[in-house]
Amino acid sequence: MRISIVVPAFNESRYLPRLLDTVERARNRYRRGRNAIEVIVADNGSTDGTPEIAHARGCTVVGVQPRNIAAVRNAGARIAHGTLLAFVDADTKVHPETFNAIDDYFAAGDAVVGVTGAYPERDSLPITLGWGLVGGVTALLRFGVPRRYSECMPTGVVACPRDDWEALGGYPESWAFAEDARFLLELAKRGRGSGRRFGWIHGAPAIVSTRKFDAHGDWHYVTLPARMAMWMLFDPQAMNRWVADYWYGRQRETSSRKR
Prior knowledge:
Layout: E1 3-9, H1 16-28, E2 37-43, H2 50-56, E3 60-63, H3 69-78, E4 84-87, E5 92-93, H4 98-106, E6 111-115, E7 118-120, H5 125-143, E8 158-161, H6 162-168, H7 179-194, E9 197-200, E10 206-208, H8 211-216, H9 220-234, H10 236-246, H11 250-258
Helix pairs in contact: 5-9, 9-10
């Protein structure tokens, strides 16, 4: 087993099938053969048939109870068999060359972490501004100057050697959000200490859904940093409520109950 791709999922029956379609396409194009790729869905107590969809598509499914995205990612990685771990959100579509690109990136053994980059499935002026602003700033902070707008967000598929994931203890489960940013920073720090590179996996940008823009408005990403700063300073409870809705999908819980 070369690559284990881990998908955290909570009520993802709408998006998971299309992700798995793109994963299958990428598996079929993988030079080492499709059976060198393992697909793990870490299900966080879904009530809409998400685990059944994953089972039917031949995925390995692990159930996770804590409503904590870092714990869900770690639970999937914990049962993985691949020497490389790849993490992707369920509302993403991966590039057909994803696994070949990951394999090429880590082939020399001199890399600690890489990201494919991603761009949104639809665009508008405020999405362009917000995505470019947040993506550009975070890319500068984490990985240096971004290559271009369409791949500037240091997200999409995140890949690292399993040994490095284990050395860090996985994603930080004490973080309710931004755990992915913290994980990347810690891996980058580890890479600097051992002389290994960290950065972009070229040629396989992912496409991510715009459901957060659909739910919260196209302009929300532009104003988000200022609003978060105000809540953290003056109204932590409002911050907690917003985190529960924005990152932990109350809207998906509601839609699931309606079904």
